[in-house]
Amino acid sequence: MIKAGIIGATGYAGGELVRILLGHPQVEITWYGSKSYIGQKYAQVYQNMFRLVEDTCLDDQIEELARQVDVIFTATPQGFLAGVLTEEILDQVKVIDLSADYRIKDVAVYERWYGIRHKSPRLIEEAVYGLCEKNRESIKSARLIANPGCYPTCTYLSIAPLAKAGYLDMKTVIVDAKSGVSGAGRGAKVDNLYCEVNENIKAYGVGSHRHTPEIEEQLSLAAAEPVTINFTPHLVPMNRGILITAYASVKEGVTEGMIRSAYEEAYRKEAFVRLLEPGVCPQTKWVEGSNYVDVNAVYDERTGRVIMMGAMDNVVKGAAGQAVQNMNLLFGLPEQTGLLMVPLFP
User: Is 150 a catalytic residue?
Assistant: First the structure.
């Protein structure tokens, strides 16, 4: 059995990690870390775990945890892991970080967008960006995985096939994104109160959302050219889910058939990316509670643009599910192990 420890087990991503790992046939959770609830029973924080988890919450002593487990998941605020991670810890244990601390290779870009100083920049180059559909082979031999952000995951998987094929004018890419409230985390914030969110939809982080440089970096690698995008996220009154609608002009000579073929070639062997039938638009309700991403594209011949769409559960494939997918690769397990949850409906 793989012994796993979670730091940040009482946030939404941490709670989802617990839910998924409890059903994983090869994993035993030995550490439920939560600085806010030290000494409190985990099932008192999340009552859905009543009689399923008898453990109490422990602190975030990563050095001690590293001596007890095979893999550590850190579902923590930006800056936490960068401030405590060392070579000695990585020599003892695999680390899968759900924060942004090691996603962006340019430390100056990270510090500018996140507004904090990076405390272990020497480890950034070693970290592998944990998008399994992109970096599967590199992940298998890694010590440190930078689990991708939710918006970047859905955006990349929606756009990458056409970016890689060279079919898009990458200077024209616009991404319209919508997310459920769980994407903002479990902390108390006025903007996330019921009366603020219910019966409302709003844009936020316009021109300044911190997932922008992560998306641009990964799309630049896919397109083999520098990419700058307009990225506008919106908050919608639902618990879970992300919907991406992206727009770009296609290059001369690109046809609808070529666009479809690019997606088919990219995803025909992927377990968790589902290319929908022509004309079917992704919907968040058909991926909720699962590790699946539904994608499709429509070519608008009248405008010469393509509309690329993706839907996924931001807490599963956008966080915990993707982290477990990375863990499976790290330990030589079939990638789908413990992740074949059927989407919930209704």
Answer: yes
